[in-house]
Amino acid sequence: MDPNEPGALPSAVIDRDGLDALIATLAARGYQVLGPRLEAGAIVQGPVGGIDDLPEGWLDVQDGGSYRLERGAGSALFAHVVGPHSWKRWLYPPKQALWRAERRDGGFTVTAPDEAVPRYAFLGVRACELAAIAIQDRVFGLDAAPPVTDDPPTDGAAAGGTFLDPGYAARRAEVALIAVNCGRAASTCFCVSMDTGPRATGGYDLALTELIGDGRHEFLVEVASELGAELLGTLAHRPAETADIKAAEAATRRATAQNRRAMVPGVAELLEANREHRRWDEVAQRCLACGNCTMVCPTCFCTTVEDTTDLTGRHAERWRVWDSCYSLEFSYIHGGPVRTETSARYRHWITHKLSAWHQQFGSSGCTGCGRCITWCPVGIDITEEARAIRDSQGPAR
Amino acid sequence: MATKPTLAVWKFASCDGCQLSLLDLEDHLLAIADTVQIAYFLEATRAVIEGPYDVSLVEGSITTANDVDRIKRIRKQSRFLVAIGACATGGGIQAVKNFRKVDDLIGAVYARPDFVDTLSTSTAIKDHVPVDFELRGCPIDRGQLFELLNALLNNRKPLVPTFSQCVECKRAGTVCVMVAHGTPCLGPVTQAGCGNLCPGHDRACYGCFGPTETPNTAAMARRMAALGVATRDVALAFRSFNANADAFRSEGDRHERA
Ligand code: SF4
Ligand code: SF4
Ligand code: SF4
Q1: pLDDT at B4 over 60
Q2: Which residues line ligand 3 at a C-beta cut-off of 6 Å?
Q3: Measured between CA atoms, how close is B63 to chain A, in angstroms?
Q4: Residue A356 covered by a domain
Q5: What is the tally of structural domains in chain B?
Q6: What pLDDT, on the 0 to 100 scale, is given for residue A9?
Q7: Residue A45 lies in domain
Q8: Which of A292, A304, A365, A361 is nearest to A331 (CA)?
Q9: Cα–Cα distance between B253 and B258 in angstroms, integer?
Q10: At what angle do helices B142-153 and B26-35 cross, to 10 degrees?
């Protein structure tokens, strides 16, 4: 039996105390548990020591360029969806030391940073976030998928995802993933159309579905790994009954129905065929080229390398920091930047994400999480931009 | 030691805050003094060594006819000239006079207007002489100042990005005040580099690092209006520390006239 098959192991039900105990168990096993917390007017991941740290009763109301917290009707712990941070902040931090060097008589010595690999448990990972982690696994060479297109790969495409990023791999290997199936979607969510959610279908250790109402507050627990089975074994639980599974299915149906946005079908070919389009100039009138969309995207992985020295020049360091394709420097090659116009930068981003990614990494680079819509200061909507191009093509082909 | 590169610090119309950032480099100050010869820095010492200078840091904007001559002499004596701070790179807050009749302002402010001899504008150093590098900010970030000196001494390019403040926010993990609180923020059109000072403290960016490399101030202004900022206040937002920087000046003009 493959424990990664959903439903391969019988599911169970725990209550609020069980969830609290799960957090304690993870901590006792040496995990730093990160989960949703209220911070600066948003729900973001941070250290959680127990269920009291979770944003009980809070909802996030999201739309293009807007995010607001509201009190929900009940005491749900996971009624919110995804916030401004994604798990890449921990799996692929904004600033990573690559090496340090000391000048010694006539030469220099290089040392790799020997930072201890953190051991995280991610609590509350949504289906779209599991999809994003799976995409980054391919990008960083953990799970090199062969390209799915028939196009002959360019050199770059052949290389994509075939190099293992050791830092990512080390952090990723230590992570415990406690997923949460969404029972509510934000207006910015479009996971259904990207086939990534709202229900997690694997790639986690445990998946929880919050079952709340009619006087009960419990969690359906599904197991997809040995670690997950072990963790569940430490908790007081009862076997799931049909009614529990039906309630979980209803939650999934609710979140599915609330997916108000959708990506147009065939978007990879659509964008490929429209490298020249007036919409690129039109979106550039609105786009600030601020880079927020790339920074919040859970799959965007671009970084730049920064070299620093001390005043004497005897000590040097190389750092990798998050970068964005919306900056001029990003496309700087001999003679100047290649993408000087914002239209070219927006086109590059959306086309890479939704189209070229397939050739490079064997899937879309978009999970439908909606972060780029919410956290774009002017609310530019990736689904809307794709649809505008589709609609300009005349009646559906 | 004669072989140490020489450093000069010059002041024009300014508040001295940026040159004080050099003294603020407390931990690094001794190392800097070991590595460079501080040849001209009246804020720190009256001892003056004659030029030419390897590196000149120029603070302040050009507001008098005498300034125009003096910056040309400084340029001639300087191998590498760096304009530091919003005054030197964008005319500073005093560039608000560029948008009024200067005689009216002088008449309103000074008891003896005839004592005042000034140009009608406050302008950046680059408007008068070629500038090799600019450090933005009101005041400049001392980390960037140190990076600049460090890079010059080690013959490498300074790590001073020209992208938006938003990138700095996101790297730092700051929740966006514009999206999450509805607070109008100039960050998307403002160059990064302050060390995430305002958004990191739940405040909107005031734009003190001046325009980004490709600022879409028109879209920014539309967003501010949608968030309820009155046209006059949109103009004022662009009329602050970097009022005379090209993109901010023209956006301010558009809304002042509106
Ligand atoms: S492109 Fe936008 S919706 Fe798609 S994964 Fe990235 S942030 Fe989410
Ligand atoms: S699409 Fe939005 S978030 Fe992305 S660069 Fe443009 S304005 Fe910024
Ligand atoms: S707080 Fe301001 S600077 Fe930071 S991301 Fe939001 S708009 Fe950009």
Answers
A1: yes
A2: A 292, 377; B 165-166, 169, 174, 176-178, 185, 187-188, 199, 205
A3: 33
A4: yes
A5: 2
A6: 63
A7: 12-257
A8: A304
A9: 8
A10: 20
Residue scoring higher pLDDT (A2 or A207): A207
CA distance linking residue A39 with residue B174, whole number of Å:
10
Both A278 and A249 in one domain: the answer is no
B176 plus B119 within the same structural domain: no
DSSP states along A255-304 = HHHT----PPTTHHHHHHTTSS-HHHHHHHHH-----HHHHH-SS---EE
Instruction: List, for residues A172-188, the tens digit of each pLDDT value.
Output: 999 999 999 999 999 99
DSSP string for B44-60: T-S----S-EEEEEEES
Residue B50 included in any domain: yes
Contact A386, A354 (CB under 8 A): yes
**Tokens standing for residue A302:** 């671009």
| CB B244, CB B207: distance < 8 Å | no
Q: Is A312 helix (H, G, I), strand (E, B) or coil?
A: coil
Residues A216 and A323 in one domain: no
Nearest CA to ligand 1 atom 6: A297
Distance from residue A376's CA to the centre of ligand 3 (Å): 10
Give how far B30 is from chain A: nearest CA, Å. 11
Please tell me the total count of domains within chain A: 2
Instruction: Assess whether B10 and B110 both reside in one domain.
Output: yes
Residue A395 is predicted with a pLDDT of 62
Partner-chain residue, chosen from B176, B188, B223, that has the shortest CB–CB distance to A84:
B176
Tell whether ligand 1 has an atom less than 6 A from the beta carbon of residue A368. Answer: yes
Q: Which has the closest alpha carbon to A183: A126, A83, A252, A129?
A: A252
Nearest by CB to B213, from A66, A328, A377: name it: A328
Contact A80, A61 (CB under 8 A): no
Residues B79-91: pLDDT tens digits? 999 999 999 999 9
pLDDT of A280 above 90? yes
ipTM surpassing 0.85: yes
Instruction: State phi, psi for A14 to the nearest 5 degrees.
Output: -120, 165
Place of tokens 């994400």: A353
* B138 & B200 share domain: no
Query: Does residue A119 sit in the same domain as residue A228?
Result: yes
In tens, the pLDDT along A49-64 reads 999 999 999 999 999 9
* Cα–Cα distance for residue pair A304/A323, rounded to 1 Å: 6
Judge contact between A225 and A204, C-beta under 8 A: yes
Kindly state whether residues A317 and A226 are assigned to the same domain: no
Residue A234 CA neighbour count, 13 Å, CB half: 17
What are the pLDDT digits (tens) for B107-165?
999 999 999 999 999 999 999 999 999 999 999 999 999 999 999 999 899 999 999 99
Amino acid B49 reads: I
Neighbours of A386 (CB within 10 A): 23
Residue that terminates a domain, selected from A257, A290, A310: A257
